[in-house]
Amino acid sequence: MCIAADSRGGLPIIEYLDEGSYVGLDVRPEAIEEARRELRESGLDDKRPELIAAPSLAPIELGRQADYVWAFSVLMHLDDERLDECFDFAGRHLAAGGVFYANAITAELPPARWREFPVLSRSVDAYRDHAERAGLSLQDMGALADLGHVTGLAHHDEQRMFALRRS
After folding, report:
1. Which terminal residue of the chain has fewer beta carbons within 10 Å of its beta carbon, N or C?
2. d(CA 148, CA 50)
3. Longest Cα separation, the chain
4. Helix 80-93 / helix 124-133 crossing angle, nearest 10 deg
5. What is the pLDDT of residues 5-15, one digit of tens each?
């Protein structure tokens, strides 16, 4: 099973996975409704992905474990409380040997906004501390640019990709 908090990769992942093996989460109900429209238009309804709009991950209990959790361009929008909820959610839902992949801005930048969300940067050590509190170990896989993801945006080379596993 794959749990994703990123609308950009959902359709190809859903197409690849077995029926009922995808859970998509977003804080915005309109994003979930758009995902449902895209599923219908793509003919992937029969894959039966579970799509959840929720203002918080804290109360969500899926009742199953995931081999992969994916959060692209998500951690940078979470304040400390929401980051702890995210890591706790991943820790509760990762299967033995499962991996939570996420990217984050690690450059020292002033707080900013994107749409209704904050854009926050933290050090790798700060992310590691949050992860450890949730029972996760964090591996810094390197800069997104070095892994082949070049955005053309300022500070794109200060975004890092993390792999988190249950400790």
Report:
1. C
2. 30
3. 45
4. 50
5. 655 678 889 99
CA–CA gap between residue 35 and residue 105 (Å, rounded): 26
Region label for 65, one of left (φ > 0), alpha (ψ between -120 and 50) or beta (otherwise): beta
Q: What does the alpha-carbon distance between residue 103 and residue 166 come to, in Å, rounded to a whole number?
A: 17
Q: What distance in Å separates the CA atoms of residue 137 and residue 67, rounded to the nearest whole number?
A: 16
Which domains does the chain possess? 1-55 (no CATH), 67-167 (3.40.50.150)
Per DSSP bridges, beta strands 117-119 and 22-26 are: unpaired
Q: What is the pLDDT of residues 39-91, one digit of tens each?
A: 999 999 999 999 999 999 999 999 999 999 999 889 999 999 999 999 999 99
The closest alpha carbon to 70, from 148, 17, 135, 124, belongs to 17
Decide: 105 and 76 in contact? Cβ < 8 Å: yes
Residue with tokens 């082949």: 148
| CA pseudo-torsion sign 112, 155, 128, 164 | positive
The pTM of the full predicted model, rounded to 2 decimals, is 0.89
The structure tokens 């964090």 sit at 138
Angle at 116 between CA 112 and CA 121, to 5 degrees: 30
